[in-house]
C-alpha cells in the first residue's frame, strides 16, 4: 500500500531517445556544419586573445574600468586583479575561458534580446516562452551537456551551446521587463510626433530599457562563467579544467587558485558592465 502503483507508472525515456536519434540521423550534416563554423570562430577568438600581449590586455582592462566608473584607481585595481591571474600561471587558461564566455554571451545577446522584445510586444508569445525559460533555469545544468554531446561530440562547441542554454534566460527576461516598463505616455508621445514602430523601439523603448537590458547582459555573463567548470568536463579547457583535475587529485591548493581566478574574472567583467550600465541610466521622464 505504501508503494506507488506500478500500473500508473510510465516512462518517456524511449520517446526522447528516439527523437534525439531521429534528429541526429536526419540533420547530421547540419549539425556538422554548425560545429565546424562555431569551432572556427571560437578558435579564432581564442587565438586572438592569446596572441595579444598580456600587458595590452591589462591596459585595456584598466582603460575600460576607468571609462566605466570615471575613476582611474578603480581601473588600476581591476588591472592588478588580472595581473594576479597571470602571476598564478593561469593566463592562457584565463584567455581560453574568456573566449568561450565571450562567444556564449555574444550569441546569447544576438538571440535573447530580439526574443525579449518579441515577448514585450506580444503577450501570447510571452505566455508561451516564459514556461520554457522557467524550465531552462530550473533544470540541472548537467542535463544541458547531454544533448550538446549527442549533437556535437566532445570539445568547445558542445560546451558553448550548453553555456548558451544555461545563460540566455536572464537577458530575455530583463529585456522583456525593461521594454514593458517604458511609460506608455512616452511611447504615445513618440507616435504623436510621427515616429515609426522601429523608431519608437530603437530611440525610445530600448534607450529607456537599457539599464534593465544591461542587468540582463551582466547576469547572462555571470551565468556563463558559472558553467566554466561543467564545460571543462566535456573538453572545453580553460580555468575549469584545473578545478576538475584538482577534484580528481584532491589538490586543494591548485583548485583554489583556479577557482579564485574564475571569481576574479567574474568580478572584473561584472564591475565593468555595471559601470557602463549605470552610465546609461535614462532621465526621469515622469518629472
Provide a short characterization of the protein structure.
The protein has 287 residues and is mainly alpha-helical. It contains 14 helices and no strands.
Would you give an account of this structure?
It is a single chain. The chain has 287 residues and is mostly helical. It has a single domain, classed as MetI-like fold. 82% of the residues lie in helices and 0% in strands. The chain has helices at residues 13-26, 28-51, 54-69, 72-87, 91-121, 123-138, 141-152, 156-167, 169-180, 184-192, 197-226, 228-232, 240-249, 252-279. α5 (91-121) runs antiparallel to α6 (123-138). Residues 283-287 have low confidence and may be disordered.
Q: Which regions have little confidence, pLDDT < 50, spanning 5+ residues?
A: 283-287
Fraction of residues in β-strands: under 5%
Q: Please give the alpha-carbon distance between the first and last residues.
A: 67 Å
Along the chain, the helix and strand elements come as: HHHHHHHHHHHHHH
What's the name of the CATH homologous superfamily?
Answer: MetI-like
CATH C-level name: Mainly Alpha
Q: Radius of gyration, Cα only, in angstroms?
A: 22 Å
Mean pLDDT: 85
- Helical content stands at over 70%
Judged by helices, strands and strand pairing, the structural class is mainly alpha
Shape: globular
Record field, number of beta strands: 0
Largest sheet: none
At CATH level 2, the architecture is Orthogonal Bundle
